[in-house]
Amino acid sequence: MTTPFRCGFVAIVGRPNVGKSTLANALIGAKLSIVSRKAQTTRHRINGVLTRENEQFVFVDTPGFQTKHGGAMNRMMNRVVTQALSEVDVVVHVVEAGKWSAADAQLLSMLPKDGKTILVLSKVDRLKSKNDLFPFAEKLLKEFPYAAVVPVSAVKDIQLDQLLAEIAARLPEGEPMFEADALTDRPMRFIVAELIREKIFRLVGDELPYGCTVVIEQWEENDSGARIAACVVVERESHRPILLGAGGNHMKRIATEARQDIVKLLDKPVFLDVYIKVRKGWSERDSALRDLGYE
Predict the structure, then answer these.
(1) Residue 41's pLDDT is what?
(2) How far apart are CA 273 and CA 264, in angstroms?
(3) Which of 70, 124, 156, 207 fits as disulfide partner to 151, beta carbons 3.0 to 4.6 Å?
(4) Between these two residues, 279 and 74, which has the higher pLDDT value?
(5) 3-state secondary structure the chain
(6) What is the CA radius of gyration of the chain?
(7) 106 contacts: CB under 8 Å, gap ≥ 6
(8) Are 182 and 176 in contact, with CB atoms under 8 Å apart?
(9) What is the pLDDT of residues 145-203, one digit of tens each?
(10) Can you tell me the distance from the alpha carbon of 257 to that of 88, in angstroms, rounded to the nearest whole number?
(11) Strand partners of residue 118
(12) Taking every pair of C-alpha atoms in the chain, what is the biggest distance, in angstroms?
């Protein structure tokens, strides 16, 4: 008997900093979602594709659900989460193992209760005692009727195959939506802009407020290499010297580390030019968010 092919959308949701993007990258096997310890790292809905012999998973890595609704950016990110939950076939709710907060609980009312939500306990490699895992999972099963519970470590590759098996069992039968070698439905320009933003968050995230984004303004590519011009948009003139650093050292390091990741992604030489523009208050205006490519 022929095994039917299964294909569907899988939303990865949770509060900020529980390891959603790290998990998505590990499952897909490529770095598509940027990772840092800062809130608002993932701002967009990013679809990553994993195709196996009998399944195609389209993972939707969503922003962390924001419990502070004051700004346009937070409202936009929560709309992305809500929309993703309404459209997918399977939901993976990521909770850091041993840690449960009001922000985790706030998401429960949005999760589908029809047997398609899987609880993932992330970062199990950081637990001081594995004996704490079972009572923690038991407690959460009383909070919500999860279809399955899978403890994982994306960094240590613990139980990722088990998680894929649980997801695959709940995907609908159907033809693949993407080519077998596809990794994402996002254009490469978007992924490159995100890689640059990751370096900014990691290097100056403690000094620079979250009012910065990256726009690719020039992209020339052929078989021998790529020439890319990227604009870092900030909200205040005072942000410029923070980004530049003494003697421009911060910006040089951001560009160097981003270029190294882009070379791996494109598998060819890359010339990367990164510069700064000031656009006052862009993160607080819905029209500016749309102009800069936010959903």
Answers:
(1) 44
(2) 17
(3) 124
(4) 279
(5) CCCCCEEEEEEEECCCCCCHHHHHHHHHCCCCCCCCCCCCCCCCCEEEEEECCCEEEEEEECCCCCCCCCCHHHHHHHHHHHHHHHHCCEEEEEEECCCCCHHHHHCHHHCCCCCCEEEEEECHHHCCCHHHHHHHHHHHHHHCCCCEEEECECCCCECHHHHHHHHHCCCCECCCCCCCCCCECCCHHHHHHHHHHHHHHHHHCCCCCCCEEEEEEEEEEECCEEEEEEEEEECCCCHHHHHHCHHHHHHHHHHHHHHHHHHHHHCCCEEEEEEEEECCCHHHCHHHHHHCCCC
(6) 20
(7) 15, 65, 67
(8) no
(9) 999 999 999 999 999 999 999 999 999 999 998 888 888 877 888 889 888 988 888 88
(10) 35
(11) 92, 148
(12) 67
Residue given tokens 């693949």 in the structure block: 176
Cα separation, 114 vs 120, in Å, equals 17
Strand 90-96, strand 117-122: pairing? parallel
**Token representation of residue 8:** 């569907």
CA-nearest of 22, 52, 55 to 154 is 22
Contact 13, 106 (CB under 8 A): no
Q: How far apart are CA 156 and CA 275, in angstroms?
A: 36
The pair of three-digit structure tokens given for residue 88, joined into one six-digit string: 């997918």
Dist. CA 228–CA 264, nearest whole Å:
15
Q: Would you state the pLDDT for residue 25?
A: 85
Q: 12: Cβ–Cβ under 8 A, 6 or more apart, which residues?
A: 20, 23, 24, 59, 60, 61, 62, 92, 94
Q: What value does the mean pLDDT take over residues 236-257?
A: 91
> Does position 281 have pLDDT exceeding 80, yes or no?
no
